[in-house]
Design brief:
It is built from six helices and six strands. It is α/β, with parallel strands linked by helices. The protein has one domain: Maf protein. The protein has a six-stranded mixed β-sheet. Strand 1, helix 1 and strand 2 form a beta-alpha-beta unit. Helix 3 crosses helix 4. The radius of gyration is 17 Å and the shape is globular.
Length: 205
């Protein structure tokens, strides 16, 4: 039996856009006000980027399933995703999350300046309530331009770095800071379209 729609347990407008791009019908399954959705995203001590993004995505899946049960909704597969930015083998930059303020954004962008970093996006789909989610992790390499302190200041003033892992958005002004990528453009945006389509096919969506 095929599934006519899915639940999307993500507030990211970019993930919504990408699902619409491939013709997937979805309904939102967002956290309640009393859920500690940000707490799930706190890295564990010495946690590596891949382990982190997979753990967070599966934790989001479990929380979304509990939310579905609580709300007594009709069943449909549940899609969750998480994206993180990493400077591999860098003690300070193994996981570069969302900046807390302008100073933190400047710190992250200064670390990325002139370097190649990784963007990891994990995607999980809970096909049935009593089964473990199907999941994949897609990794892309991104070359960042060498930025001057003034360029970093101007970019931060745009407001775009906030709410984004790695303090930049490739689909916005941040695209002008990136000479090249190796991997999935949509994965860097937050949902690798090819890999997600493969999971959706396995979930009979």
């Amino acid at each position: 039996m095929s599934n006519p729609f899915i639940y999307l347990a993500s507030q990211s407008p970019r993930r919504q856009e990408l699902l619409k791009q491939i013709g997937v019908r979805f309904e939102m399954l967002l956290p309640d006000a009393d859920e500690d959705s940000e707490g799930i995203e706190t890295p564990l001590p010495h946690e590596k980027a891949r382990a982190y993004v997979e753990r967070v995505t599966l934790a989001k899946s479990a929380a979304a399933l509990a939310r579905w049960e609580k709300r007594k909704l009709p069943w449909a597969p549940i899609l969750c995703a998480d994206t993180t930015v990493s400077l591999p083998n860098s003690e300070e930059g193994e996981i570069l999350g969302k900046p807390t303020d302008a100073a933190d954004a400047a710190r992250i962008l200064t670390m990325l300046s002139g370097k190649i970093h990784e963007v990891l996006t994990a995607v999980a789909i809970t096909v049935r309530p009593n089964e473990k989610p199907l999941h994949i992790t897609q990794v892309s390499e991104v070359q960042f331009a060498q930025l001057s302190p003034k360029e970093i200041e101007v970019y931060i003033a745009s407001g775009e770095p906030f709410g984004k892992a790695g303090a930049y958005g490739i689909q916005g002004l941040g695209g002008a800071l990136i000479p090249s990528i190796r991997g999935s453009y949509s994965g860097i945006m937050g949902l690798p379209v090819y890999e997600t389509a493969q999971l959706l096919e396995r979930a009979r969506v």
